[in-house]
Amino acid sequence: MSNPMATTAPSPQKPLVEVRNLKKYFPVKEDMLTRLELKAVDDVSFSINSGETLGLVGESGCGKTTVGRTLLHLYKPSGGEIYYDGERIDERTIEQHRKDMQIVFQDPYSSLNPRMTVADIVGEPLDIHRLYKNKKEREERIVELLQTVGLNGDHSRRYAHEFSGGQRQRIGIARALAVNPKFIVCDEPVSALDVSIQAQIINKFEELQKSLGIAYLFIAHDLLVVQHMSKRIAVMYLGRIVEVADADEIIQNPQHPYTQSLISAIPLPDPKSARERKRIVLEGDVPSPLHLPSGCAFRTRCRECKGHCSQSVPCLKKVSPGHFVACFER
Predict the structure, then answer these.
(1) Strand order of the sheet with strand 183-187?
(2) 103: closest CA among 3, 21, 185, 5?
(3) Which residues, in sequence order, are bridge partners of residue 25?
(4) 289 with 58: CB under 8 angstroms?
(5) Tens of pLDDT along 124-181?
């Protein structure tokens, strides 16, 4: 099966990260006799160039986090292919690329070991990969990493519980940067933080990308944050990507009915514009991922649903340069 997303990046350069038809199914027992598969990620494809940010958005439970974790083999893929710098990643080769592919977790309160000092948390990747010659070099590197994310060397002797949420997330970023990665999965890195702290962390991600050339898969549900951070945006619904385009294009010209609903929910700072804009409210509930509707998974909530929408699953198709939509009506 060909990769419909392979042409979404306008640059002719070889993608740093490429995902083809990725699947992740979880076995679930419905009762004593029935065993079902929960299709958390089902046939997802995308590519990310060096130094680029791809935003991945969608409502809670759509599979965004599972995509990021499966990409890094924190979850074993159920199917599909993952390539890093042209080399296929599997169980045998992933360990060679752990240094190049890192993750910043969503919750800064649970992702840091409360029994370890900040020096040990940030220094653990250095220890695992033996990235220093002596104790002094290790300590200097830890201080350098803390300063890179806006903390100071004195913080290295303290424990995670002594810091605020924003400071903890900075520690998590420093830990990810310790091995000089070229690609980082940012799993809703600001969703648990106050708005004022969110801006600081987002700015820090941008500074690091400019100075170090890091590529990001930026997972979030806040479209304004994703638009600010990303060159391109992919929209997920129930395990599948339903639309992908340049960030400004997808905000100004959404094509998929689900994307249109998401865009209409973005708050506007101008009260007059907010009153004039028509809010697209989705009807019905999100289907259970254990009992997905036939055909297009979104059809039970879609205002444009036709009879043929229940017959087969729509594939991503090109509607304009760099803009792909999975909808029969486009």
Answers:
(1) 101-104, 183-187, 215-219, 53-57, 232-237, 240-246, 323-325, 317-320
(2) 185
(3) 39
(4) no
(5) 999 999 999 999 999 999 999 999 999 998 899 999 999 999 999 999 999 999 999 9
Average pLDDT over residues 227-238: 94
Closest CA to 261 of 213, 215, 303, 210: 303
Distance (Å, whole) CA 35 – CA 26: 10
Rounded Cα distance between 68 and 80, Å, is: 14
Quote the CA–CA distance of 309 and 209 in Å, as a whole number: 41
Q: What is the pLDDT of residue 274?
A: 64
pLDDT-derived band at 259, boundaries 50, 70, 90: very high
* Angstrom distances, CA of residue 293 to CA of 71, 140, 239, 303: 26, 56, 13, 16
pTM of the model: 0.90
**Cα–Cα distance, 81 to 22 (Å, whole number):** 6
Secondary structure letter of residue 134 according to DSSP: S
